[in-house]
Amino acid sequence: MLDDFEARHPDLSVESQQLTWQSGFEKIVLAFASRTAPDLCEIGSTWVAKFAAEGALRDLPESPERLAAEYFLTEPGVLNGNVYALPWLVGTRALFVNRSLFEEAGLDPDRPPETWSQLLAAAGRIHALGPGVYGFGTNAGERHVLYKKFMPFAWSGGGRILGEDGASVTFDSKANLDALRFYLDLAEVSLVEKQAVLDQVFKEGRIGMMISGSWNLKSIPEEAPDLDFGVELIPRPDTPEGRHVSFGGAEMLAIPAESRRGEAALALARFLLEPKQGWRIAREVQSVWPSSRKASDGAPPLEPGAGVFLEQMETARTTPTHPRWVELEDIIDTHLERALYGRSSPEQALRDAEAEMESILSAGE
Amino acid sequence: MAWSARQRAGLVFSTPWLVSFAAFGLFPVLFSLGLSFSRFSPTRPEMSRWVGLDNYGALVSDATFWQAVGNTLFFAVGTIPFTTGIALALALLLHARPPAGGFFRTALFVPTVISLVVISLVFRYIYAPNGMLNWLLSSLGAGGKAWLQEPSFALPAIMAMDVWASVGYYMILTLAGLKAIPREIYDSAEVDGAGWWDRLIHITLPSLRPILLFIVVINTIRSLQVFVEIVVMTQGGPLNRTLTMVYYLYETAFYKLRMGYGSAIAYALFALLFVITLVQLRVFRFGRAVGE
Question: Which of A61, A161, A204, B160 has the fewest CB atoms within 10 Å around its CB?
Fold first, then answer.
């Protein structure tokens, strides 16, 4: 792929280093710390704000509005109206449905749940099928995951984490409380486990529904070819204004402030953002899509269910762009988990999380 | 100062080690000590600044930190007596030259040479809701659990694994200690009419004291730094019940990128280790045997 770029730009040559998911972030941080950062690097969407706020990234000549019109999930790259990173590869979550369990529970698999109450009712019916079968899969007991599962419900009811200005906490809200109560109800008819276990038990045909990523589109047919499953949009609140919101994450491309070849790096970034190049990677890495809103036009043949993910992408949201997001995320996870394990009431969990997040925000930096 | 040829040669030969130790051992240690008094962001090192004791002050009121301290101490106190005791018992059994002793010695030592990451991965499956442990329990008519998901069981489950994984190494050390005890002492004690129990209490254990001290001290140092098991198996959860000091420091420094605060946690751990080791050395030296 990089050869194509070099063919188009004969004056440039690109050297790339592939990093592993586990240690890649540490290596990038190290490169910044030792002032040996590359001219263009990939940064996870939740970290861009921190890097940008510290002046480690170059302000790109882009308008946030134009960018948002062309690409999904551009918000994480925008801080104080400036664009610091471009979304390259995006991913979201959707609802996986075990169609056989639906039939067993007397439900119509062609009419999957669209609203919260339908979801809860269906999960309850499936959960009642007997021990070892679970209505839903709820995440717990691992870091950096739970908020991705809860926030879609909160967002779809109009809830937020921070205010519009990004400087105030609005987590302790009626919408979030409704979402948390609903999520706890759902947990009652769930297997409460880590994502890898949920994916596994779903493949064993013992979970009715779960929210998970598109990596399953390939791994389920491979590992459980007999499983009759469907992919659906994440159910919305029963209220008329409720929407099917999901969680979105992006791998963003950013140019370190110290790069002396900013123009060339930007050219490379724009090249990589082309849907054609994005699809080349998306075919290899099953959990991501090209970020272009028009990517589906040039899409290669995709697995069944992929269309739902592309549709879900339209309403996928990212976490707030805040330099200290990773700390806020930890607070949200901690208190959601406390509620899930019955250590806090839902009201208390939201109140505690809000107070702790406020102390982070008021500390500045 | 004039150096003799011998001294110069010594210096030359130890220089490679001294240089590498200074660069990769001493420098990072001192650098992180400096970091613990700073606000340091790796993305912009030039923006770092001195904050005095702020990081340490924040530690004192950080409930999560104290939870990590509690979990870490619980881990150490809950594993070391078992590891040491079981290692001693196994060493005594093997020392009595049972049939197939060589086989058992090797089998018990094997976990030591397996990567802890691999062991942790295997145990994650053993402890899984439909894993081997629950299968075993249900075949015995007992109910199973999602061991690593239960707040009260996750840490003990990891501790049990740790005892299993490390006991072989300490058993070999104890066995070496046993073999070093002169046969004649036992012979003369037997002539004097000392039974098995008397010999254990009055000869074996006192003779083993240096090796047992060594075992307890290094096991303490190792246990207080427990990390790999946590990363692979629970990442500190559920409800931070398996959050250990090193895992908390790792999260703080390398995920939240709060390197200064992370370094303060590291030095708090160092202080804890230092004090505990000092106490252990004092206690074990107390009441030394005649002639020791």
Answer: A61
